[in-house]
Design brief:
The protein has 411 residues and is of the alpha+beta class. It folds into two domains: 47-155, Immunoglobulin-like, CATH 2.60.40; 166-405, Rossmann fold. 29% of the residues lie in helices and 30% in strands. The chain contains nine helices and 20 strands. The strands form four sheets. Strands 11, 12, 13, 14, 15, 16, 17 and 19 form an eight-stranded mixed beta sheet that branches. Strands 3, 5, 6, 8, 9 and 10 form a six-stranded mixed beta sheet that branches. A hairpin with a 5-residue loop joins strand 13 and strand 14 (256-258). The longest helix has 18 residues, at 25-42. The chain is globular, with a radius of gyration of 22 Å.
Length: 411
């Protein structure tokens, strides 16, 4: 789907494509003018080029000759790549600048101050060991279209890779500062998720660190503080799982908002947006967690306006694998078995051996994500609900990784 119109955000096109596949020509016809306009906008997307590059080591910064090399050697003591960018506004303004390393968003920077439609800025890119493919993306001011630099590959000497640690951040909220937002199973789902992945990972990873934030612990400030700590502790060889059960909102401009516990003013959408964790803030927080292997589990409730494809755009922006659940026509099903919601119920089933696995009982990211995305709709329909799930493999190359071993069924 990302190749439908290169340079467009995924959420821009998916609705029209879905309607066309369903055989409804009216929606597609109504969108033809808009798509034509978007094609014209692509000719005015920002221009971004790498002017200079050097590899940061303790001794200094070793320049790379960009005229001759698309692949450069990576010193064993290299810590970062420093890039000088040139940006040109071609009519749509210049927005955020994202840096991707090996398909993973490792940093989002605000646009530099433009003078006469041009600007230069310096970006420092944290590197993974052994080899890196680095690419930058400059969005227009509205965040709808983007331009990318050519990929730059850095390769060093291969070293044996050891199994890293497992870090888990699980958030579940039932009771919000605004009483009208109450949920029933957010805390139970986050707790069950944390328990399940801890048991599954215990015999695979050398250590498992679980951070569980529920109700009053899950304020906007506290959530972002935990991300700050994880940004300091998590290393590239580690694995990171993020689960959140809360409300999700999609604004009229397409932005996704995650609702923390301490939201109190729901008098207007502007007030909600100011108190929420918006898409850019979430992308920023996730980009600083350096684990190469990550899954983001977004379990939004009572949010019919948030489609699974809108949630998948978070995966697209972060470059992370993302199983996500949302309601479609009806509100999301709160409980499947009077213990957990349908999304976590499917996750539990997957780790209990329902997800595809070989004789070694290893559950991988791809097998779990594919199982959950298919199973959620089946389980919801058994309870008379219409609920969607999606598994967004945001990286350009499908590369699975282990999550844990098959565990016995929980209570």
């Amino acid at each position: 789907m990302d190749e439908f119109l290169p340079g467009l955000s995924r959420a821009v096109c998916v609705e029209a494509v879905r309607a066309a596949l369903a055989g409804d020509p009216r929606h597609a016809q109504a969108r033809l003018h808009d798509i034509g306009d978007l094609r014209q906008r692509l000719t005015r997307q920002p221009n971004v080029t790498v002017a200079t590059a050097c590899i940061v080591t303790p001794a200094g910064c070793d320049a790379i000759d960009l005229r001759e090399h698309s692949t450069a050697p990576l010193a064993s003591d290299a810590t970062a790549l420093r890039l000088q960018l040139r940006l040109t506004d071609r009519g749509l303004g210049v927005g955020n600048i994202d840096v991707f390393v090996n398909g993973r968003n490792v940093g989002r920077s605000p646009p530099p101050a433009m003078q006469n439609g041009a600007a230069e800025t310096t970006v420092t890119v944290p590197l993974d060991p052994e080899q890196d493919t680095v690419q930058l993306r400059a969005y227009d001011q509205g965040g709808d279209v983007f331009a990318e630099t050519a990929a730059l590959s850095l390769r060093g000497a291969a070293t044996p890779r050891s199994m890293g640690r497992l870090f888990v951040l699980a958030i579940g909220i039932d009771h919000f500062a605004a009483p009208g937002l109450t949920l029933n199973y957010g805390v139970a789902d986050a707790t069950a998720f944390a328990d399940t992945v801890k048991r599954a990972g215990a015999s695979l990873f050398p250590s498992v660190e679980v951070t569980l934030l529920t109700n009053a612990q899950a304020t906007k400030t506290r959530v972002l503080a935990v991300f700050d700590r994880l940004a300091q502790e998590v290393r590239p060889e580690d694995t990171f799982l993020f689960y959140v059960a809360s409300h999700g909102v999609r604004m009229s401009d397409g932005r996704f908002l995650l609702i923390p516990q301490d939201i109190s003013d729901v008098s207007s959408w502007d007030a909600v947006a100011q108190q929420a964790i918006d898409e850019t803030l979430l992308v920023n927080a996730l980009s600083r967690v350096r684990a190469r292997d990550s899954l983001l589990f977004l379990d939004t409730r009572h949010s019919g306006a948030v489609t699974a494809d809108a949630l998948a755009n978070v995966g697209h922006e972060t470059g992370r694998y993302l199983p996500a659940a949302s309601s479609s026509v009806q509100e999301a099903l709160d409980s499947y078995d009077n213990h957990n919601g349908v999304f976590v119920y499917a996750v539990r089933e997957g780790f209990e051996g329902r997800a595809p696995h070989a004789s070694d009982n290893l559950i991988t990211a791809l097998s779990l994500g594919e199982y959950v995305s298919e199973r959620v709709g089946v389980l919801a329909r058994r309870r008379g609900h219409d609920q969607d799930a999606v598994f967004k493999a945001a990286q350009s190359e499908l590369r699975s990784f282990p999550l844990g071993m098959v565990v016995s069924a929980g209570p």
